[in-house]
Amino acid sequence: VSRQLKEEIRRGFARLEDPLAGLLAMLESSGDWKGKGHSLWYCITTELQLWIKAHPAVPQSGTKLKKLQTHVLGMLSQCPANLLDPLISIYQLHTADRNYLLEHVSHLYLQGNYKEAVILSIKLKLQPDQDVEKMCTPLLLQDKANLVEDYVAEYPELQRKLLQTLDTWCDPSFNIREITRPYQGLSRYKPEKFNHRVLSKLVFRLLERFNVDSALCPNVINQRHLRTLNYLFYKRFVEKTMTEENWADHIQSTVGENRWLQGHLVQSLLRHCNARGAARWAQHCRVPPEMLPQAVAEELRKLHIQDRVEEVIKADNYEASKKKDYYQLPIPRENIHFLQTWEEMLKCWEKVLQPGQVVGVDMEWKPSFGMVGKPRVALLQLALKDEVFLLDLPRLLEQAEAEGEKEKLAHFIQMLYSDAAITKLGYGMVGDLSSLAATCSALKDTEKQMQRVVDLLAVDKQVDGLSPEHSHKERGVRQPEKGLSLLVQHVLGKPLDKTEQLSNWEKRPLREEQILYAASDAYCLLEIYERLCKDPESFGLGSDLTDSLVGKQSKKPRAKKQLNKQEAPSPSGQECQGPRTEPSCPPAPISPREFSVVCDTMLQGLGRYLRCLGVDVRLLDNEDDHRKAAEIARQEGRVILTSGLPYQTLRSQVGEGRCFSVNCSEKAKEQALQVLKHFNVQVSLNDIFSRCQ
């Protein structure tokens, strides 16, 4: 806004006998003051606010001010968001009678203006005198969880009350219809967004955001642990990809002393084992004998040494077969070093930080099984040609902090990643770095600083003949190989043994099997890289493999590592022609109005966000077939936005550059920013909310 206009506005207020009453009269006489954006009325209102600060004698008090406050309160529910704060300040609504303000908000609520009632309550800080369940329920039914979070953000007691209410609703025996019934006629009511699963996710988000003890929400926590329990039984008894030790570790940490979960554990044991097997596992998992059915309790008493002898023989046979079927570490065991002290780290530092060095990098963490927060790295593996270093990250960080030098480990890791003379190999490296930053905040900018990094996840997308189906046929009944394990099988001849992948990596000491697994995961990267560089053509790669992989440091995979590292993430942020080629220059800038997309199933959040920015968006429903996106894209000339496995199918059905994969683990805002950046879409203020929502 021009300085001349601002000065004219201030002169106008100076000439008015009652500027406060004058502003309200002007707003009411104008038809466009309710419009969105930084309108003329926003400018006039904020200028009056500044003018009042310069003229402290202007603000009124007493009966006249009360009349003005009553007047402006009636207007607030209709005014745009950007006028709320200036008007509340100008008319000193924080000093108004609290009971009157509460009564006004209650009136708005009874009229069905739930959103407006809550926004006004937040602005006037009325929450401590309100019923949090009553105020928030209609907002949750309208899928306005963000506004609910803002409502309780500054009040820990209200946060706890809200979480307890949500947890009560998440009890499997609770009938959700009891909550929804009074609001059947609610506008913008979204019953599909109000169920146990969605509410459970909201509880975990609030627990993390407000740092509240999860013990406050036993229903949600128990249900999450029960899902983990069922998943562990599937991994052990159906998929048969988890060792007894790993399974028992996770079962014990999941169930603990919780009687309700122990009861479900016993039921699951009886479904998957005979009485003798159930008794053995019940003993292993320390289930109290009084919780066991009589037949299982009887078998528990009969268990003897012979059972354990048989298990040892089976284990020995299994180890012999593993050597035949899986990739084996080619270096002797004594060349694997488990580092827990800074003195040991210095020796590692001297060897790793050598110019010309090639280092395989991997990380392990305890599986979260869907619990809150980013995983914290428990083990950092660095593989050189002749030896592997396993860094006990929690122990080393603890020791460095105790010595008052908590930055020194972070300094070593940053030096490694930023050294252009050292080649770093990884698989899904950006996901690893995200977890590393969650473990040590000093490492949060490592991704921006890294140089000479080769992420073999990008190679994974290019290697000819790489498919889980092909692997499955070759290896018979075993689960098909995926991700890094599939790449290792294709390039080196045998897959990785992933049975230790879901280990409890925080438990010390690590078992020998865990140590060998961790070392293999990092060392195999060196062998893959060496083989591909020697003979790239036989794997369908260009002869300039080394230059194309290492030379373009700006090009980093956008995919994050998932719970199961062997499951290769979708090529997030990759254009449909794949990661081998990179455009010589970015596309010409376009406005959102020139950009039209079709969002695949499960990306409605991204679609709605882009529509808010003025993009022409078509949304698929969750029930639609993915192929419908390609059909719409061809008919209407749209770009397909998708995620995960459908990307590979859809990219082949449209022209080059017309299919883009986003990271499904990111929020809609981050996904939208990624899309806008890739297609060089330039958003202006006029584009925002320019389309019907």
From TrEMBL:
InterPro entries xref list: 3'-5'_exonuclease_dom (IPR002562), Exonuclease_MUT-7-like (IPR052408), Mut-7_DEDDy_dom (IPR037432), Mut7-C_RNAse_dom (IPR002782), RNaseH-like_sf (IPR012337), RNaseH_sf (IPR036397)
Listed Polar residues bias regions: 565-575
GO biological process: nucleobase-containing compound metabolic process
Pfam annotation, one family: DNA_pol_A_exo1
Annotated keywords: Exonuclease, Hydrolase, Nuclease
CDD domains reported for this sequence: mut-7_like_exo
Domain 3'-5' exonuclease: 336-537
Region (Disordered): 544-589
Biased composition regions of type Basic residues, renumbered to the chain: 553-563
GO molecular function: 3'-5' exonuclease activity; nucleic acid binding
Name of the featured protein: MUT7 Exonuclease
Organism: Chloropsis cyanopogon
Gene: Exd3
